[in-house]
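Pasting as-is:
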Amino acid sequence: MTRANSILLKTLAPVAIGLAVVAWLFAREFDIDDFRRINWTLPTALGIAAAWIFMVGREAGLAWRFRVLSDRRLSWRQSIKVTMLCEFTSAITPTTAGGSALSMVFMQREGIAVGHATALTMCTLLLDEAFFVIACPLIFLIVSPSELFAFDTGALATGLRTAFWIVYALIVAITAVLFAGLIIRPGVVSAAIRRIFKLPLLRRWQNKGDETADSMLTASREIRTRPWKWWAEASAATFLSWTSRYLVVNALFIAFAPAASQLLVFARQFVVWTLLTVSPTPGGSGVSEWLFTTYYGDLLPDPSVALVIAIMWRIITYYVYLITGACMIPSWIRRGLAHKR
């Protein structure tokens, strides 16, 4: 199978999964009369437009972060290209696989040295995970857990609550390891990773463990001496990108369900994206559509509105990257093959 055909299959697979779940949701919940009852007014159009603006804000934040982390070696055009390629690979790979890890490959193609690209990738991972770790407790101080999981009173709510706390605990653990390995004691953490992968149960992945330990040491040497202004700007870019992504849903609720609590809508995005980090499907396809319509159902007048918002949400935050990436990847591959000759 050629590389182009492989990419095509990886692109079509998540699209097929997402469309299948949407079709199932339509068959189960959608009624054309409910759709006709939606009041398509100027505020509705403005809300949809705001959702697209917030999505642009997310991409601007990510591109800004690549600019900052690369010490402006990446131009704005290159930063945007790397951002869109990362979004595409995240869309066609399971979220558990971490498609954004390929950002080091994309940055190398744009002229960033291997060691520096590795450091930047590690740093972006640390910043993203730290955002979740810090923001979630703040959200729980503002919105009570009972409100966050009030969509259902049965086993489903209990299951999602349990899953959320398990995943959040894993994120905290990963963030602690990254922080210690990149900032505090890189030598100790690197040596510990090597020892762990020498255990009998993990020995088959020892090479991967050694690569991770080496990457962490390389990244640590790159970023430990960075000034606080560098970290502050990168953190601000991270904050912009993630909050903008969450606000997409707020804008869609303003468009289709303005009576819903905007604070609760925003807070629940932390639960949604935390759970999607362990989705086994490419880009969270299928899981995200079902989770959204189920989790936000109690804030909406009827299930059909939830389905309309879910579809709009996925178009803006997911399908647009499949289309954009599918257009960019072929030229990127041709450029790489020409470079090797």
